[in-house]
TrEMBL record:
GO terms for biological process: lipid biosynthetic process; methylation. The lineage of its organism: Bacteria, Pseudomonadati, Pseudomonadota, Betaproteobacteria, Burkholderiales. The active site is at C381. This is Cyclopropane-fatty-acyl-phospholipid synthase. Gene3D superfamilies: Vaccinia Virus protein VP39. Keywords: Lipid metabolism, Methyltransferase, S-adenosyl-L-methionine, Transferase. One of its GO terms (molecular function) is methyltransferase activity. InterPro entries: CFA/CMAS, CMAS, SAM-dependent_MTases_sf. PANTHER family: CYCLOPROPANE-FATTY-ACYL-PHOSPHOLIPID SYNTHASE (PTHR43667:SF1). Belongs to the CFA/CMAS family.
Amino acid sequence: MQRMNAPSDALAARLAALPVAVAVELPGGKKLGAPPAAAAVVLRVRERKAALALATGQIGYVGMAIVEGQVEVDGTMRDLMAAAAGLLPHSPIQGKPSAWRRLLGWLRSRTAHTLAGDARNIQFHYDVSDDFYALWLDPRRVYSCAYFRTPDMTLAQAQEAKLDHICRKLRLRPGERFLDIGAGWGGLLLWAAEHYGVDATGITLSHNQHAYVQQRIAALGLQGRVRMELRDYRELQVAQPFDAVASVGMFEHVGRLHMTQYFDTVRRLLRPGGLLLNHGITAGGVENSELSDGMGEFIERYIFPGGELMHVSAVLRHMALAGLEMVDTENLRPHYARTLWAWSDGLEAQLPKARTVLAGKHGVERAEKILRAYRLYLAGCALGFERGWTALYQMLAAHPDGRMETGSLRGAQSEYPFTRDYMYAARPASTPTTQTD
């Protein structure tokens, strides 16, 4: 009897120390924590395995149990995440993974990133439903970290500020050839063409995104200057390298064993002297490639199969091995926390519509699982960026051209200016977006 009670006794003690009041109902009916009527979060645990995960702070496995219907939740996502953070036994980025976990990660990275495998993984996530994503993204459907240049910006304004921030860093000019790797629903691709006059090419592995952007190109009358291709970056062949390349929210899908090849390919696609803006999520810890306590497994199973994170220092090493020179790096981690909370709040405000949209494509049972997974994913990632478990970097790199003189200045070997002033020069005030789908 003492052995059976030990996990629940430990859980009761941990519940008492949480920053929000949590009530737990265990299998068999035993109740722990706050009275349900006074609790901000109520967890009804239906499986003993889920109860053990809860007692030991394995919150990723608790999340899986929630998705599978083994744990029912009442409460807001913000309160649930506050409780989850308090239940963790330690930081999920501390310590080195075991030799077994490292071997599994190596095998997964080696085998998962074939052309066909990466296409399946991307389509698993991005082709869930365009209408579902439209419920909680901004009107341009920019599915990456926003840039809150001023504290009062709306999500839509901050996404436009991010698009402009990238274009400014790349110093885009009319007539230049611009490549967007992993172009999503075309936000950056179309912004660069409309506001900077570039000849723009985007690539994606998502059938939904490809079709959507083709429609947007036609609607905006940009057929002559903008094109979207359904293509893997490794298969892209061009007669003339691009003047500038952006990769936003894509390199997380590459795999650590393929990272140098990825940057080698980007260097091949970028003309000497040109600039690359690589924007993506990185690991918060130096050693870990995924979060512990089941959180990495949750993301792999329900959200981003095949995704792998690396610390920014490791990313920059691969970039350098490929012959690209890092000229500027900016950490937007707090911006992504705010972005993800905006997405999470947006989805929470649209739950009935989200159920209807997902059920129409996937059926009611599958729709409920997808919705539970995304609710946890968005709020959980917001928590992770707030706590520094993950980060978001914009890495600006140059393809050195070997020239020792740029105008009156010597040694630049690229078009990158000698100061950052050009990135932050006065610009027109952002206004709310008026784009409609």
